[in-house]
Amino acid sequence: MRPTGAPCLRILVDTFDGEEDSVSTIGRNDPCPCGSGRKYKRCHLGAEEPGQPAGVPGRAAVHDLDGRLVGEMIRYARGRFGDAWRHDVLDDYPGELDARESHQLFVPWSVYHRPVEGRPVAAWFSEEQGGRLSEAERSWLAAQAMSWLSVWEVTEVDEGTGLSVEDMLTSETRVLHEVSGSRTLVVRDALLGRVVDHRGISVFCGIHPRPLPPRFAEEVVLRVRSALRRRVRAVPVERLREPGVADLLIGLWEEAVQVRNARPLPKLVNTDGEDLIMTKDRFAFDRTVRGQIESRLLDVEGSSAEEGNQGETIFTFMRPGNKIHKTWENTIVGSAVLAAESLDLETNSRARADQLRERVEVACGGLIEHRAREEAESETLLREARTREPTPRPVPPPEALQILREMKEKHYEEWIDKSLPGLGGLTPRQAARARGASRRQLVVLLKEIENHESRSPPQERYDLGTLRRSLGIDGEAPGPRKEPRADTRA
Questions:
Q1: What span, in angstroms and rounded, lies between the C-alpha atoms of 116 and 85?
Q2: Which of 69, 144, 208, 316 has the fewest other C-beta atoms within 10 Å?
Q3: What is the tens place of the pLDDT at every residue in 129-166?
């Protein structure tokens, strides 16, 4: 008997534990079992809750169809090959199975990739059970048989509609109907998974739950190409369908994820070369002298003020020039928030905090009283940033956006001729003129920058096209040369 209801409300892997008829409700923040790599609330929940939009017609339907068939194939395999099949599959999986979300890739792998008696379960199932399947089910299984596991790089995002992706091994390209993915992924994110082409649409199926940034994805691709002895030209799709290749990809991807997670936190410094430590000095005063304090803070050299949202006055303290960026006209050394009975000074190093505190205390005389200093070191901030979900930032005013864009433009004007350790001491301009590894490293570095910029609000992003054109590598990728081949779409 087939499972009823939307499969995303079931954990199909329950069948591996011998609980064939048991089901588990998926929480909103749990990984979506369809294999998309996203949380359930951001994937199929909207399509399955009454009154919610279903997204692009056909997408939710094929994921629903796939989920039902995968569950059916697992039950078929246990009956056809015995209980030993379940234990062998669990033992043979090349990835980690500690986390619940790993089932997003494990379950599809168990039926579409791992051979049993020479063929995947899906091939046995289609041959022996095909007569009782509907035409839609047979068509979907045929489309799955034509897909392959690979590393797909996001090349374009049409938010709310879908994604354009390119296979970093075969150079195949697809436009995917992935509404949720278009809201969570950004340009140059790389994913390990399968793209299935079915009746005019392409969708992700069986995605590893952890995307990788360009540098780590490129390392996986280079190692796979080396193993397949295809260092220059595109890898034929047929090679990626060969037994064992999926295991190689999963194992290397898992290794890259672990290396990335274990990487040491970077040491952050401000433009004075001082350790980045966010500091806040808190002062108190009698509300009757607030006007005097505001006047004296305006007299501090390099200060400017603007009105805050709740009757506060926001001060910015600057000094001429910048030690690192010679083209910058000034450096922001700190800020202050003057409320009715309190004054908070904020800086990004202890040295700046001490200097600004002294200047403010001298200017205000005995009108303010220091109460406390709060500090947050960069390691703590970075560790928290890695574990929490990003939250939307308010859009800065047009004047601030213009300043930010100008600062980025000046930064990259200098960067293009700066010696970089990641390029073996070459400047980006020198690496662009080189051949081989240096130029490839530069292309990957530009992808890293583009990936980082894509996470900023559109108004704040720097146009990497300008930088690429200046370097003479506009549109270039470090990938393989593509060879003419027959269309593999179902």
A1: 8
A2: 316
A3: 989 999 999 999 999 999 999 999 999 998 888 899 99
